[in-house]
Structure formats: C-alpha cells, structure tokens
Design a protein that fits this description.
The chain has about 290 residues and is α/β, with parallel strands linked by helices. The protein has ten helices and ten strands. The chain has a domain of about 180 residues: P-loop containing nucleotide triphosphate hydrolases (Rossmann fold). Bound molecules: adenosine-5'-diphosphate and magnesium ion (MG).
C-alpha cells in the first residue's frame, strides 16, 4: 500500500514537513534548557495559515499556551476553530507558519524529521481523529506497533499494561481483526490502546470519544484520567463534548484560531453554558435574549 497508510506519528516524513537530510544528532544529545519545567509541551505565538491571499485560511492566530505536566487538559471549540491544527503542531506532526513549539524543554520547531520521529516515538502518544490504523495489521499488531517501530519487544511489564488496556477497552475478542473488520468505535479504541501502550509522558487525543457510546466513552475518559492522576502522564484532549471535557483538570476554549478562555475544572453544565454564550456572542446575540 502507499504512503498515506503509514503513520505520520512514527514515520520520518510527516506530511507538511520539509524533507531534510538524515540528522546525526540524537534526541538525548540536544541542548535542553530548563526554563520550561512544569510544562510538558508549549507553543508560543503560533500561527498557521493555509493557502495565500483571498483563499487563505488562518487556522491558528498567534496562540501561546502550555500543557502542564501531569495534568489532564481539554481543548474545546467549534468545528474549524483550529483544535486539530494546534494538536498536530504541538505533537510535531505539522509545522507552523510562524511561532515556536516545545515538547518538554526541547524546541521542536526546527528539528529534522528524523529527530522529531525519535522524540515522538519515545515520548508522545497520539490518538488521531481519523484513527490512522495500519489496514494491513490486525488490532494487536496496531497496538504493538510503537514497540516494533522502536525496534524492540515490550517488556513483561509493558505487555501486562497492554493486556490491561485491551481488557479495559473491551478489545479482547477483536485482537486478530483488521481495521476494516472493526466498527468505528472499535477502531477508535485500538487507536487509544496504541497511544497509551508505551505509557508516553505526553498524550494527545483528538476527539477520542467521538465515535463511542456513552459507556465506552466513560471507560476512555477514565483511562485518560488514570493516566494523569496515577501515572503522572500529561494529557491533552480535543473534544466538543462538555461531558468529556468535565473530566479534565483544565479546559481551554478555542474560537477562530485564538484562545478565548482558559479555566480550571468545570462541570458539564458550566462548560455548555460557556460554549453557548460564546457561540451566541460570535453571532452577535445576547445570551439574555434567548434565555427562557
Ligand atoms: N490541510 C488544510 N488545508 C486547508 N485548510 C485547512 C487544512 N487543515 C485545516 N484547515 C482549515 O483550518 C481551520 C482549522 O481546522 P482544524 O484545525 O481541523 O479545526 P478543528 O479541529 O477545530 O475542527 C479550518 O478552517 C479548516 O478548514
Ligand atoms: Mg478537528
């Protein structure tokens, strides 16, 4: 099969990134500043535009934000507000038009594709909105792919963690099925197991409950919560579901490529009310005009 099936997460040539000669520096050997301790990832003055002139779209407009270490952060906003673009750039899967991005203390803007690939493989898990499973591999092959691509087998401890994920996500009876033999929700759960399999420091999840029924959705949110609370992993989750966002420690709202609010844990009701007010505000309507 061709290149689009190969995970941009793990391969050296990410779409949208300039190909560069193979790098010789290793991730460990790079200069690391200690100025950003406490943040697992951050971006500064990040702008992303697609196209130019009349047809140009500004997906992100000078966004500065950090994901705190060990915290579960939700990123919310209407469709087209720039959520996926922000996550892809923060994870080093796409390059910004301008601005800078760091994973931990390592600046990723300017790294070669190979350096980025190594950094992502070891430290970042990504649940893609479109799953990006490898169609030729069965479910367990997809889940174990991060180990294969890192050229190693899971340790006994890691294998036990994978078994635990498979069980929690209800995938036990589907491990030998290939993606086309799985429902959307099952594929999404395989993608989640793959992102968590290596217990990366930093997990990005783009609408990870988007295709799940409410019970599986709760399992996934519970897994992400446990990942941050018990294992100290830093989680950034895009969602447009206020109930999903209410599981997070912090909720960041995006609108039109800008951060419109950054709040501590909110109830689903508070989140819904805020989103409604923001949508009405964008449409020039006062909230009081529509309240019953
Ligand atoms: N590859 C692309 N080419 C052109 N426009 C794009 C591309 N990707 C995203 N966009 C545009 O950028 C904006 C933000 O998109 P996205 O980050 O996917 O939003 P969200 O995830 O919040 O729905 C949208 O207007 C979208 O149409
Ligand atoms: Mg999106």
């Amino acid at each position: 099969m061709d290149a689009h099936i190969i995970l941009p997460m793990y391969t050296d040539a990410s779409p949208g990134r300039r190909a560069e000669p193979a790098a010789v520096r290793t991730v460990e050997g790079m200069h690391i500043s200690s100025t950003d301790l406490g943040l697992a990832a951050r971006v500064q003055q990040l702008t992303k535009t697609y196209g130019t002139g009349e047809g140009g779209v500004t997906a992100l407009d000078a966004v500065t934000v950090g994901v705190r270490r060990g915290e579960f952060t939700a990123i919310m906003g209407p469709s087209g507000s720039g959520k996926s673009t922000l996550m892809h750039i923060m994870a080093g899967l796409d390059a910004p038009t301008s601005g800078r991005a760091w994973i931990g203390d390592t600046e990723i803007t300017g790294l070669s594709d190979l350096e980025l690939t190594i950094l992502r493989r070891r430290r970042v898990g990504f649940v893609f909105q479109a799953f990006n499973l490898v169609p030729t591999l069965d479910a367990i092959g997809n889940i174990l792919l991060p180990f294969d691509l890192d050229g190693r087998r899971p340790t006994a401890l890691e294998r036990a963690r994978v078994d635990g994920l498979v069980e929690t996500l209800g995938l036990g009876a589907r491990l030998r099925h290939r993606p086309h033999q799985l429902s959307g929700g099952q594929q999404q759960r395989v993608a989640i197991a793959r992102a968590l399999a290596t217990a990366p420091d930093l997990v990005f999840a783009d609408e990870p409950t988007g295709n799940l029924d409410s019970r599986s959705g709760r399992e996934v949110l519970g897994l992400l919560q446990t990942a941050s609370r018990t294992h100290g992993q830093s989680i950034a989750m895009v969602t447009h579901d206020p109930i999903a966002a209410s599981h997070a420690d912090r909720v960041i709202f995006l609108g039109d490529g800008r951060i419109t609010a950054d709040k501590p844990r909110q109830s689903a009701e508070e989140i819904s009310a805020f989103m409604l007010a923001a949508e009405l505000g964008a449409a020039g309507i006062e909230a009081s005009e529509v309240s019953a």
